[in-house]
């Protein structure tokens, strides 16, 4: 826990409530693996009477009650929450956060966990994020912003005159692109093609109205998540995601093909450095920008030879990082999230964690992250869930005539714990082997980089 006025370091935890007997209903907004994990964990709270998920998926239908309301239907979500006396709303995905769902719900008198629309721009606009990082002197890659493909292409042609010269840049769409609007480039032609895809072809829609070209950093990537009420920061154990589609970190970027927690690449000294050099300054910078931040701060970092540098900020639990994190959490999640909403995170004791590591292996549809077929029946889910220390979190699934079918690119997050990372991996892939549908695939090396 980090009180922002004193900044002592330490990892936070279990909440002591003045009134721990009050029961409440919870609404989780979203329908992916992150939301299944949130609903599952919130449902374990003795204070939670019922968990609703809107719109949910086939997995949340087992662990909670699904509500057929889209995450973008703000009036219907607000009406449902008020009519059902929802005591806490937890917004999972970035799209409704950036769209201002939290603001509208608070205006309607609801208690909701997540950042405001103004604060969510930290993820909603990479240009805003990079400019804020620069202003706050938070370490990040050097960058330039462009408003057109012509400007960006001209920069590449002028900067890299020799076609054989290595080009170590990353081209990023400014707006939300489901984790796919980041293209790593090694040649001039690759950079020009990335600019064309983002800004001319608009492969990622309006996210490409502006773009960033930044230096390509080297080093291991790691995710550090924290919960904050704007005054206190509760840092969670570090996790490591696997963004590229294929083994060995090859292939196109995805929303995430798996994650494990904790990440041994970060020791206590490095965590303290990230807290002091990244988390505390960004919360102060948001406050100075009159965008006070409440919710989950997700720092995507590169551990470069010169120290940790910020790749991006997200404003919600990561997916799939959320799944292994919540598998290990022993503290009542409802208490912690409610304290963040109420501005009472300073009243907590250290969070309680299962000491065993956990990993999540994402099973995807054939063709992902490109086009894929839907509606294929998934078998073996019960057998996988029956394995000791394994939980199958659903992401892109749907119930059709009583059968679970694939309904997205990333379909399942098979998550497991073990005494060591190797044993957790073994359990997770045991679960994977039980599950089958036409075209199912996954990476085989999730957590190997922890060795």
Structure in words:
- With 451 residues, the chain is of the alpha+beta class.
- The protein has 4 domains: 2-9 and 218-347, ATP-grasp fold, B domain (D-amino Acid Aminotransferase, Chain A, domain 1), CATH 3.30.470; 24-116, Rossmann fold; 148-209, no CATH class; 358-450, Glycinamide Ribonucleotide Synthetase, Chain A, domain 4.
- 30% of the residues lie in helices and 26% in strands.
- It contains 14 helices and 23 strands.
- The chain has helices at residues 33-42, 60-63, 74-83, 94-98, 101-107, 117-124, 126-135, 149-159, 188-200, 268-288, 322-328, 333-342, 381-385, 421-434, and strands at residues 2-3, 24-30, 48-55, 65-66, 86-91, 112-113, 143-146, 169-173, 182-185, 211-215, 221-228, 232-235, 240-241, 244-246, 250-253, 258-261, 295-304, 307-314, 358-364, 390-394, 397-400, 403-406, 410-417.
- It has a 5-stranded antiparallel β-sheet. It has a 5-stranded parallel β-sheet with strand order 4-3-2-5-6, sandwiched between helices. A 5-stranded antiparallel β-sheet has the order 13-16-19-23-20.
- A hairpin with a 2-residue loop joins strand 21 (397-400) and strand 22 (403-406).
- Helix 1 packs parallel to helix 11 and helix 8 (149-159) runs antiparallel to helix 9.
- The longest helix is centred in the middle third of the chain and has 21 residues, at 268-288.
- The radius of gyration is 21 Å and the shape is globular.
- The protein starts with a strand and ends in a 17-residue tail after the last helix.
- The relative contact order is 0.15.
- Residues 6-20 have low confidence and may be disordered.
- Its cofactor is Mg(2+); Mn(2+).
- It is an enzyme of class 6 (ligase).
- Belongs to the GARS family.
- This is Phosphoribosylamine--glycine ligase.
